[in-house]
């Protein structure tokens, strides 16, 4: 079992920045790829970014490329999402998720159903 807790959400003006952090506990953090997803009211949970367990591979949804950065510190069992130039339409509950990699080089996944563990989510509000 991997327990995930998000932090760092809140209210920001459009164009502003926020850094979300996800702390993992329980089973070893190693060999788990990590992802961030977001869900706005009445909408599906959408992929935002993912990072391999080594940190050597990252993936982003097209709309956040160049503005968001995912990173991890395996010594602290944390994964961060730095979000710059936030837009009002990006207001949502943001979720951290963990997926056990099946083998070295296992491709990063963007489907929520492929992740094994989830945090409780944290609200990000972007005012226009």
Question: How would you characterize this protein structure?
Answer:
- There is one protein chain.
- The chain has 128 residues and is mainly beta.
- 0% of the residues lie in helices and 51% in strands.
- It has strands at residues 2-7, 10-13, 18-26, 32-39, 46-51, 58-60, 68-73, 78-83, 92-100, 117-118, 122-127.
- Strands 2, 4, 5, 6, 9, 10 and 11 form a seven-stranded mixed beta sheet that branches.
- A hairpin with a 6-residue loop joins strand 5 and strand 6 (58-60).
- The protein is globular.
Query: What is the ordering of alpha helices and beta strands?
Result: EEEEEEEEEEE
Biggest β-sheet, characterized? Answer: 7 strands, mixed
Compute the separation of the termini in Å. Answer: 39 Å
Structural class: mainly beta
Average pLDDT for all residues: 95
Q: Helical region count?
A: 0
Q: Secondary structure elements and their pairing?
A:
Elements: E1 2-7, E2 10-13, E3 18-26, E4 32-39, E5 46-51, E6 58-60, E7 68-73, E8 78-83, E9 92-100, E10 117-118, E11 122-127
Parallel strand pairs: 2-11
Antiparallel strand pairs: 1-3, 3-8, 4-5, 4-9, 5-6, 7-8, 9-10, 9-11
Key attributes of the depicted protein:
128 residues, four-stranded antiparallel β-sheet, 51% strand, mainly beta, seven-stranded mixed β-sheet
Summarize it:
The protein has no helices and 11 strands.
